[in-house]
Inverse folding.
């Protein structure tokens, strides 16, 4: 009874008293198992899918917080089955993979087998038969090792269905007949019913309608004790009607069609019966309450009439007059209100329609720009890679200028593409602000050093002033601060040729834990006209066409600055006058940090005589050639495969020092291939190579078992640093 009461409160949390009681009970029962049980109750009893997901996610969060690894796997597994039941196939696959990743592979349980089985069903639904077979085979092997013979028949059922989809009808029939024989008793009755039904489907596909009717009838008979599952019953009745129609037996076809229709109606009635009954009880209760209140009022009215008849008469006349006036006033107001409401509804519809159009246009623009920037990265990787290789081969003096120009153009185009991707990320709200310990003064000095050559080229006098009272170590997001400062300094120097730039950081206020800083970047360059200052922070906006042609640039820098500062709860301010320079300023609040030991990463190298072998999984022939050549230049041997399927099978029998895995592969993707490899190899480093898009991020890719991510087109020095660091570690 206590358990039922708790479950009742979990479903009806909107009531005031129930909600307060539920909170008290939740304090006592707050655990992973408790949340999983409530999620399962909502799933199995068809109470609420949203509640099932909500409580299962609470179970996952609780398991993470309390480091309950095995129960975390149970949560992912339950969430995957919920998403599978509501046809959210991709979300189901994601959670099955997470369940597998947190499972103990050395001491496997039935839950790990169930996760493999679930992945098989998901890929079968996606019609990826080969992948589905891999996961069903894994599940079967585990069930056999755990001696779960009944569960093996579930997998055999799926194997029969796979053979049916491949039109290998003889093999499919043999497997399904074996399932029925091995489940001779009434255990797993639903599996037996499905096997009969699939045998009927096989005969229907071969136009053997009499045999199909026989198997459908066996399924219907076996289903007699399973009438609560309306979906199975409806499928059987519908196919019986179709099969009889094929044999020209319209009388029997009509019989089963009527049963099918009656069942659909009864389901609808069953779903609405309790609601109707409760509604009738409520109406009767309300009417009875009104009668009691009316009798009570009449009794009091009679008593007052006996005592104050004359006074009540006068008051009644006055009251009637007032009510009449009020009624007339209300009538007019109601008429006016109805007219106003109609106008407002029409305007609201127009605004809603325009809002949806604007949102769709914004989404389409973001997706288009993301796709374009993503697709440009692959050929750009080829351009930059080939240019780099040619520059390493000591070109002629006459060729060197051309190659340097090509290298510059490739770098410029990459910067432009990165800006487009960054602005899309910021607009999609997929960026989070970090809070880590860093040295602000060191960060600013490093940025200043990187601008030295640019400052010299523009003959600009650069002045840096940092308030000495500012703590060296702060807590914040150094990456985003770098983006802001680099964009503002780049503009200031670019537009102040032969002029001066002042970069000032002041301490505005501080207490024991926090400090607020004022950043100001000022120049005496060309300035910004008044009429352009309101739009200068818009994407792709510059002062004028002439400025764009003269100074170049993407017109995205200030837009990126504004959006990053908004994420950090700050605002960018501009004061400028044409011909007299510009001043950009903003303020940021930081937590005070503390000095930490700097981690020095030594330059890596490979011991001579110790030949390293790298597996490259890449479908683009040009990228294969470039990457192989870059590896061979460092004395590293390279094996090339074109697909994820080949990579899975190859790594079962071959050992590599490192795997370079392209994310976007035909067939099985790089992430799916990595997950499969990790099921039997947890040590070989796997590095993702990807032209990363709006919907990807490093954390997501690492969650599939990858060790590091290199973004295409990659810088050769960074590529070598990452590769050599992992190869040196494995020596």
């Amino acid at each position: 009874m206590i358990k039922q009461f708790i479950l009742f409160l979990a479903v009806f949390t909107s009531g005031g008293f129930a909600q307060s009681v539920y909170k008290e009970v939740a304090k006592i029962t707050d655990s992973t198992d408790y949340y999983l049980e409530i999620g399962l109750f909502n799933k199995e009893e068809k109470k609420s899918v949203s509640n099932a997901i909500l409580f299962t996610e609470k179970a996952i969060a609780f398991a993470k917080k309390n480091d309950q690894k095995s129960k975390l796997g149970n949560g992912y597994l339950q969430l995957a089955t919920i998403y599978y039941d509501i046809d959210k196939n991709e979300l189901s696959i994601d959670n099955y993979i997470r369940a597998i990743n947190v499972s103990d592979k050395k001491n496997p349980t039935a839950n790990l087998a169930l996760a493999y089985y679930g992945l098989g069903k998901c890929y079968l639904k996606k019609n990826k038969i080969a992948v589905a077979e891999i996961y069903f085979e894994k599940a079967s092997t585990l069930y056999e090792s755990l001696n779960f013979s009944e569960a093996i028949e579930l997998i055999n059922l799926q194997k029969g269905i796979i053979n049916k989809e491949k039109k290998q009808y003889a093999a499919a029939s043999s497997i399904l007949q074996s399932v029925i024989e091995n489940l001779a008793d009434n255990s797993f009755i639903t599996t037996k019913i499905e096997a009969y039904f699939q045998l009927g489907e096989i005969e229907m596909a071969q136009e053997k309608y009499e045999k199909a009717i026989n198997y459908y009838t066996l399924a219907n008979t076996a289903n007699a004790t399973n009438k609560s599952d309306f979906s199975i019953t409806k499928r059987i009745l519908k196919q019986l009607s179709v099969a009889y129609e094929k044999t020209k037996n319209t009388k029997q076809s009509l019989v089963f069609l009527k049963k099918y229709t009656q069942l659909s109606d009864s389901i609808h009635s069953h779903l609405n019966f309790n609601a109707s009954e409760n509604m009738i009880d409520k109406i009767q209760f309300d009417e009875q309450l009104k009668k009691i209140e009316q009798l009570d009022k009449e009794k009091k009215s009679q008593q007052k009439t006996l005592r104050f008849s004359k006074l009540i008469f006068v008051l009644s006349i006055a009251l009637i007059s007032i009510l009449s006036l009020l009624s007339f006033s209300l009538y007019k107001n109601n008429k006016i209100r109805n007219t106003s409401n109609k106008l407002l509804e029409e305007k609201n519809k127009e605004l809603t329609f325009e809002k949806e159009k604007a949102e769709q246009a914004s989404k389409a623009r973001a997706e288009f720009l993301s796709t374009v920037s993503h697709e440009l990265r692959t050929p750009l990787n080829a351009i930059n890679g080939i240019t780099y290789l040619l520059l390493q081969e000591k070109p002629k003096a006459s060729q060197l200028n051309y190659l340097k120009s090509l290298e510059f153009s490739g770098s410029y185009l990459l910067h432009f593409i990165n800006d487009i991707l960054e602005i899309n990320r910021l607009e999609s709200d997929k960026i989070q602000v970090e809070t880590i310990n860093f040295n602000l003064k060191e960060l600013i000095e490093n940025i200043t050093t990187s601008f030295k050559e640019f400052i010299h080229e523009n003959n600009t006098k650069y002045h840096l002033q940092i308030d000495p009272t500012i703590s060296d170590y702060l807590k914040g997001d150094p990456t985003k601060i770098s983006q802001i400062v680099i964009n503002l300094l780049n503009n200031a120097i670019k537009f102040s040729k032969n002029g001066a730039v002042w970069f000032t950081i002041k301490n505005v206020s501080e207490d024991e834990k926090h400090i607020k800083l004022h950043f100001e970047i000022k120049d005496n360059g060309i300035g910004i006209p008044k009429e352009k200052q309101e739009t200068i922070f818009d994407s792709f906006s510059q002062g004028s066409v002439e400025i764009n042609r003269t100074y170049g640039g993407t017109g995205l820098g200030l837009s990126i600055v504004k959006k990053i500062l908004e994420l950090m709860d700050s605002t960018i301010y501009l004061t400028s006058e044409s011909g007299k320079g510009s001043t950009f300023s903003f303020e940021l609040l930081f937590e005070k940090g503390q000095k930490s030991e700097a981690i020095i990463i030594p330059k890596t190298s490979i011991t001579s005589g110790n030949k390293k072998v790298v597996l490259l999984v890449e479908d683009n022939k040009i990228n294969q050639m470039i990457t192989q050549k870059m590896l061979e230049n460092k004395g590293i041997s390279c094996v090339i495969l074109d697909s994820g399927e080949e990579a899975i099978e190859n790594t079962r029998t071959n050992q590599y020092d490192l795997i370079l895995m392209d994310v976007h592969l035909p067939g099985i993707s790089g992430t799916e291939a990595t997950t499969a490899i990790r099921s039997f190899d947890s040590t070989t480093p796997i590095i993702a190579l990807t032209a990363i898009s709006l919907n990807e991020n490093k954390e997501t890719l690492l969650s599939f078992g990858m060790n590091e991510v290199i973004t295409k087109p990659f810088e050769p020095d960074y590529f070598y640093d990452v590769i050599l660091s992992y190869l040196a570690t494995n020596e």
